[in-house]
Amino acid sequence: MSLPDMHSAEAIPPAARSEIDRLLASGDLFRYTAASDAPVSLLEAEFAQMMGSKFALAVSSCSAALFLSLKALDLPRDARVLIPGFTFAAVPSAVVHADCVPVLCEVGDNYRIDIDDFIAKLPDVSAVIVSHMRGHTSDMDAIMALCHAADVPVIEDAAHSLGTTWNGAKIGTMGRVGCFSFQSYKMINAGEGGIMITDDADLIARAIIMSGAYEHNWKKHPVLQDAFDAHQNQLPLYNLRLSNLSAAVIRPQLPHLARRVADGRRNHDHVADLLGQSAHIQVPTPLPGEERAPDSIQFNLIGMSDEEVGDFVAVAGQNGVKVQVFGASADNARAFWNWQFIPDLPDLPQTRAMLMRACDVRLPVHLPTDTLNDVANVLLTAISHATEPQRNYGT
User: Fold this and answer.
1) Which of 55, 154, 269, 309 is most deeply packed, by most CB within 10 A?
2) Cβ atoms within 10 A of the Cβ of 390, count?
3) What is the reported pLDDT for 390?
């Protein structure tokens, strides 16, 4: 059995090539050169329409989108921002970069925000970032109701959740701002890149200027023009723009999103059903109303020692399936105790315990069923090797 590269992405649609060739021939890679219809501008319009949002701003990464969202909220220096304890290091980094202070919230063994801890910490914060980590959506009805009552703005970190819905609403459209990633391991792949969406004209105007719309380049954005007047020359420029080349790679992939989401959900559920054969593997189920858009699978290891966990990971890797145990992988950027740049870094015992047994395996959406079966077989065999007593033969 030979497995393919589990980190390979789906090929970029051929439609991107003619636009890339045109851009290379013209040398026109800067989003603000053209008076109108630059590829980045077209991407913003198409993405906003797809999501049902009024405004979109394409930037260099989802991290940049999170940072700009915080700056555009005009929070005071050292404002406290509540984030889940299970997220990627880029999220607390964006908070720190925005001159704010991350406040970490406990996460349960289903990878969702612990609502009781969220309620306890909400009164002491000025904003909330909800990370739909690896596409696992927390109870957004409860979170939005609590934040609305407390008048605390919500930013959705939907880097992993393009295509996910919550009771029919698109993830990324429920908070004040939604931020998405176009990094290579996401549903839409540009290598790097991000985008933010909102219905708030003043917020997006501030973000547009700070993203690098210097002088009067903001006039090339379809936002109420008087939203910019108060901010001209009043805000710093961080120059986090997306290039036309990246937009040319992204735009032809948008029509493929629905199919990729369906394929990813099918792949995930197929492998999850097979892994359910083992008493040592538990795949958290979606919350009621959650329709995920996965391109990976996460599961918890049950009743296994640290030595058995290490053995499982090693055997699976030897047979072509890389398993990342978030808390057991050295210097993992998703293990909160490695975020040493946070002052007075707290301990989150519930989240720590979860991360020490939570596994992550890539499942690219283009994998065929036979390969999915092979992946599941590798994982089940590795579990058996790690947990079953070795038989001794002989006299």
Assistant:
1) 55
2) 5
3) 58
